Amino acid sequence: MNNFEIYNPVNYVFGKGQTEKLTTLVPKEAKVLLAYGGGSIFKNGVYNQVKAALSGFEIIEFGGIEPNPRFETLMKAVQIIREHKVDFILAVGGGSVIDGVKFISAAVKFEGDAADILRKRILFTDLSKVIPFGTVLTLPATGSEMNSGAVVTIEATHEKLTLGGSALFPKFSIVDPTVITSLPKRQLQNGVVDAFTHVMEQYLTYKHDAILQDLFSESILKTLIEVGPSVVENPSDYKLASNFVWSATMALNGLIQKGVPSDWATHMIGHELTALYEIDHARTLAIIGPNLYKVMFDTKKEKLAQYGERVWNIKGNSAEQIAHQAIEKTIEFFHIMGMKTKISENAENIEKTADFIVNRFEERGWKGLGEKQNITLEKVREIVEMSY
Q: Is-contact 261 205, C-beta < 8 A?
């Protein structure tokens, strides 16, 4: 097992009716920026719950944070915070809103071009350099409610880039599984596949001796396989909803990544598809992931076979046979979850997609991706072209 440190200061508040605890969780006398997305919180009652819990607080609202939050939009919120001397942010929404708030938190006191936060992957570790924030989760998928990472799109250049650092953990996150009842089916499908792929990025690498970490990952995968199709059809079932929501948090709160190698190439390629074609993030992962496993089969086949045996209960005459079947079972699961696993099923005029992505990676100086840095630009091209 690799050396590691684990630090996660988030006060994770889980269960029915927990939004009322905002009254005690938000610092007294705080001037609050209430940040949200396109307005779903008005339909599902969360807005009213939040406002009731924050009665007596001075609140400035900022709506309109997009799916795949835009740098340009977030900078408007940064300006509001500076002008009104806001000292706490409350993100009410899914991963995009929370990611956006992490950027806002980092950008308010940043000196220089705020786009450099993304382009230079600046890590924020000094709490005095950020604005504290909390979250009320309305859409499980990204784990952003319990981690310190975020992804933001610069619309002007079609770049989808990351930021993070130990100073960007939420102070608290309220997670009420009942809120998923009002979510569209497509968003629930995306949430399951997003969480599933988060686990795969940290698990499906190569054999190592971190026994417990593998078992953690496999248990999350098996839970998502068990509850995923059903929760999409019946999100009001609290057993299904609570296990789905907790699995999505556990998939990317940092725990299963400790002491083990991780990949993340599927995400890095998938981000480019979202930036190019506005394909839902989870659907880019369903497109790229299985083809990455095929192209990198020789270096991943031992772990693929373990995954096939332990997660899918596949029996076979050889590790290689089990590994191939495991990829096919993954594709089948993605189809069950409503994913279309080809770029051409999600976008038009895709002929130069591979050229664009390879060129973009070259410009950034990325020569090798993955847990062994052996996913070369030639391999990236092969993965993308196989995904057409």
A: yes
